[in-house]
C-alpha cells in the first residue's frame, strides 16, 4: 500500500473518512447521528433506513415526545427528501415536517 502524507495507508485513510448526519434538539442536545462512509451514496433507500433509525432513537431517547407525537423533522427539498417513498413513509408514520 502507498503511504499518504500523514503516514497512514491509503486504505486506512479512506476507511476513516465520514460525513456526519446529525439530529439535534436545541434544549436537550443530540438525539441521533450517523457516520456516513465516504463514497456511500445517499439516496432515498439509504435515507429511509436513516429515518427508521431516527424514529427508534426518538422513541428511546425522548419517550415523552414519542408518546405525544410531539417532534418535528426538518429537511430541505433535496431529491431524496421529496421522493415518493420517503413522503409515503413520513405520512404512514405521522412524522410532521417543519415548514
From TrEMBL:
<dbReference type="InterPro" id="IPR001888">
    <property type="entry name" value="Transposase_1"/>
</dbReference>
<dbReference type="InterPro" id="IPR052709">
    <property type="entry name" value="Transposase-MT_Hybrid"/>
</dbReference>
<dbReference type="InterPro" id="IPR036397">
    <property type="entry name" value="RNaseH_sf"/>
</dbReference>
<dbReference type="Pfam" id="PF01359">
    <property type="entry name" value="Transposase_1"/>
</dbReference>
<protein>
    <recommendedName>
        <fullName>Transposase</fullName>
    </recommendedName>
</protein>
Amino acid at each position: 500500500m502507498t503511504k499518504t502524507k500523514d503516514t497512514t495507508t491509503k486504505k486506512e485513510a479512506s476507511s476513516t473518512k465520514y460525513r456526519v448526519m446529525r439530529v439535534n434538539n436545541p434544549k436537550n442536545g443530540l438525539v441521533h447521528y450517523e457516520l456516513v462512509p465516504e463514497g456511500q451514496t445517499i439516496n432515498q433507500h439509504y435515507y429511509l433506513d436513516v429515518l427508521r433509525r431516527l424514529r427508534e432513537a426518538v422513541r428511546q431517547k425522548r419517550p415523552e415526545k414519542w408518546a405525544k407525537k410531539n417532534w418535528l423533522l426538518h429537511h430541505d427539498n433535496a431529491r431524496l427528501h421529496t421522493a415518493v417513498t420517503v413522503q409515503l413513509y413520513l405520512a404512514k408514520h405521522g412524522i410532521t415536517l417543519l415548514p
